[in-house]
Amino acid sequence: MASNVRRAAKAATLIMAANIISKFLGFLREMVIAREFGAGLGSDAYFMAQSIPMLFFTSIGSALATTFIPLYTEYKSKNGREDADRFANQIMNLVLIVSVVLTVAGVLFSPLLVRIIAPGFTGEKLSLTVGLSRTLFPLIIFVGLANVATGILQSNESFTAPALVGIPYNIIIIALTIILADRIGIYGLAIASVLATVSQYYIQVPSMRRLGYHHRYSMDFSHPGIKRLGLMIVPVLMGVAVNQLNTFVDRMLASGLPEGSVSALNYANRLNGFVLGTFVTSVATVVYPSLSNLGAKEEMESFKDSVATSLNMIFLIVLPVTAGTILLRTEAVRLLFERGAFDARATGMTSVALLFYSIGMAGAAAREILSRAFYSLKDTRTPMYNGMYAVALNIILNIVLVRFMGLAGLALATSISVIFTSFTLGWRLRNKIGGINGRLILKEGIKIAISTAVMAVAVYFFKNFIYSYIPGVSLTAQIINLALTVFVGAIVYGICTIIFKVREVTRLFSFLYRRLHINNV
């Protein structure tokens, strides 16, 4: 048991480190995009065009990763590695065929799709969006293949290559955007995105070969796992797709707002997604195979404890980051993006959207863990219906709030819907397995919330002090001010969690103490 915990901790640390590097490069990527294209016609067209294939490739990719791992693990455990690899090979070929068909259809019907999703676009903006969407559709092929490859590797406890895929992805986009922007404009970014996505699959191929997996092209789809995955993936696909529809609907309504609104929503969403992509995904990725194993063995007490621990770990990270983002949103956006074509107006729009997106950060994080818990129990319908409720609520709130709040209303609607549906999903899981250690989650959550409140007060007063003590808008002054403020906030928060004896922090210190004690002996 102890060795499993240590192995999981090492894997989580590796994934988190790789994600931090990838997210740093992702920020650099967004900075380059913002500098080159700002928040205007070209960037609006690109982000809207991107949302069309994104609805397909993110949905298919996430659904594959979610349903493939439990089945592959089951076949490997019961029938051996050879049978599991045969299943994986047939899935890979099926994904290739389906994604090629979707790509061809997407290219052919791009004009119709763009008119549906961007009713506010006309003239040059409409034509540019159609051209960009056609350029971006081949993304679907390699995203599908990359997700199956990730599933194979993670099922065999090989986390390194999947964790690293974001690094070359971001480097390629950064380099090619800088090279091509002056030559072919926003199309350079689209081409860079496609080539970067291709790298996400091929960087994992050497690791699959080292495991002994060699892909073979064939039209054999006779493995019984194909039918099982087909039955499982439909509700998961619908559940994931409806989540993507939130962003989709936001951008659709933003197309009728002032120019730059679609871009501002995107930049804010990317900043907000840093926490989910770096910390939440790291925890969920490592916990998911363990939850699947516990669910298969029907070890429900351990399953409940694992869910509760995962939620506490998520809240320990997400709550202070939420408070920090709300308090430092303008400073962060200005530091990261305000240069080149990205002006003060774009900073203001992005900061407003970021404020209201941040409110739902904890809800989105909790929903990620809770959905994985259901999938581990091979229940794919509950998260699907929950996602459908989220989209319905988001659409209703979007229509109401956009009239009164504009851009801010779209972000707030997303946050309200995700908070509400995360609570309902948690309630459904509690009823399904007879509790999720709710008292423990509430007890530790209160400690974390109090620690976050103390940190927020410290950050508020220190920010006012340091920004008056070191005035100026130079890059150096901005970096020093923001870094010092974040550092002070982190120290205050860390001290508070120790004083209040937050369970996960206490466990961490106990683990470190034992390791140091053993090493000294």
TrEMBL record:
The keyword Cell membrane applies. Pathway: Cell wall biogenesis; peptidoglycan biosynthesis. The keyword rRNA processing does not apply. It is found in: Cell membrane. It comes from the Bacteria. Its main location: membrane. One of its GO terms (molecular function) is lipid-linked peptidoglycan transporter activity. It is a multi-pass membrane protein. One of its GO terms (biological process) is cell wall organization. GO terms for cellular component: plasma membrane. The chain crosses the membrane at residues 12-32, 52-73, 94-116, 136-153, 160-180, 186-205, 226-245, 271-291, 311-328, 348-370, 382-401, 407-427, 448-467, 479-500. Keywords: Cell membrane, Cell shape, Cell wall biogenesis/degradation, Membrane, Peptidoglycan synthesis, Transmembrane, Transmembrane helix, Transport. Pfam families: MurJ. Involved in peptidoglycan biosynthesis. Transports lipid-linked peptidoglycan precursors from the inner to the outer leaflet of the cytoplasmic membrane. NCBIfam families: murJ_mviN. Belongs to the MurJ/MviN family. This is Probable lipid II flippase MurJ. It comes from Calorimonas adulescens.
